[in-house]
Amino acid sequence: MDHVIKPVEPSALSKKFRSLEGVCWRRVMERRVAERMDELKAANARLLAEIKERQKAEARLREALAEKESLLAEIHHRVKNNLQIVSSLTDMAGRRMRDPEARAVCLDLQAKIHGMGLIHTELYRSGNIGRIDIAAYGRMLFHQLADMYEAGGIRPTFDLEELPLPLDKAVPCGMLLNELLSNVFKHAYPPGEPGRVDIRIGWRSPVRAVISIRDYGRGLPQSMDMARTKTFGLRLIRDTVKRQLCGSLQIDSDGGTAVTVEFGVAGGA
């Protein structure tokens, strides 16, 4: 009865309305926060699902890459073994020949086969099926050829920088080094006499490689026209540099023979 009889103070009504507005506004905010939280939970669930799917896809890619690398490594291993068989057969054939020139041809062929096999050996050993350090390869090739040609008296001086090359450059470089070093062992010095050879493999510039082989032996005949000679070895060197390496070739015969090859390398040092 007091509320009916007594007049209501305006200030009391104002407080009551403010209180009701606050309650309504808080409920609205709580509902909006709850809705937003539900949206965030749903988005988080979608993100987690996408992450899991991406992780599965990455795992599949890693497995496929590992399988591919394993297969390529096995291919290189088998190629190396097959080349060793061919080399052994060539060696057996050469030993049966009485003609010194024919035996020399067999030895030269065997050296080339060994050089190719060494590339595949290095690819298999290093685990990097895409590139090979041609400087390290050059060092091993020298010692391998020195044993084959029984040229232990020829001493090398190495100036080597790490030079990783892709296969399309490494293979022709291997052939080139094989031919240049074989020429030193066969022609630079008389059989059994000591000698030396300077071997430079590295970078001429950040995007250009250099290979230089210099001996201090007999040198080339003065009458030889390097641009027109038809000897197999020099033609092989010219064709390899020009067609496969797209590089430049310089041959000097002053106090021995010096061959310098330069070519570009994609990606550089």
TrEMBL record:
<dbReference type="GO" id="GO:0005524">
    <property type="term" value="F:ATP binding"/>
</dbReference>
<dbReference type="InterPro" id="IPR011495">
    <property type="entry name" value="Sig_transdc_His_kin_sub2_dim/P"/>
</dbReference>
<keyword id="KW-0175">Coiled coil</keyword>
<feature type="domain" description="Histidine kinase/HSP90-like ATPase">
    <location>
        <begin position="175"/>
        <end position="263"/>
    </location>
</feature>
<protein>
    <recommendedName>
        <fullName>histidine kinase</fullName>
        <ecNumber>2.7.13.3</ecNumber>
    </recommendedName>
</protein>
<dbReference type="InterPro" id="IPR036890">
    <property type="entry name" value="HATPase_C_sf"/>
</dbReference>
<keyword id="KW-0597">Phosphoprotein</keyword>
<keyword id="KW-0808">Transferase</keyword>
<feature type="coiled-coil region">
    <location>
        <begin position="30"/>
        <end position="74"/>
    </location>
</feature>
<keyword id="KW-0067">ATP-binding</keyword>
<keyword id="KW-0547">Nucleotide-binding</keyword>
<keyword id="KW-0418">Kinase</keyword>
<dbReference type="InterPro" id="IPR003594">
    <property type="entry name" value="HATPase_dom"/>
</dbReference>
<dbReference type="GO" id="GO:0004673">
    <property type="term" value="F:protein histidine kinase activity"/>
</dbReference>
<dbReference type="Pfam" id="PF02518">
    <property type="entry name" value="HATPase_c"/>
</dbReference>
<dbReference type="Pfam" id="PF07568">
    <property type="entry name" value="HisKA_2"/>
</dbReference>
<feature type="domain" description="Signal transduction histidine kinase subgroup 2 dimerisation and phosphoacceptor">
    <location>
        <begin position="74"/>
        <end position="149"/>
    </location>
</feature>
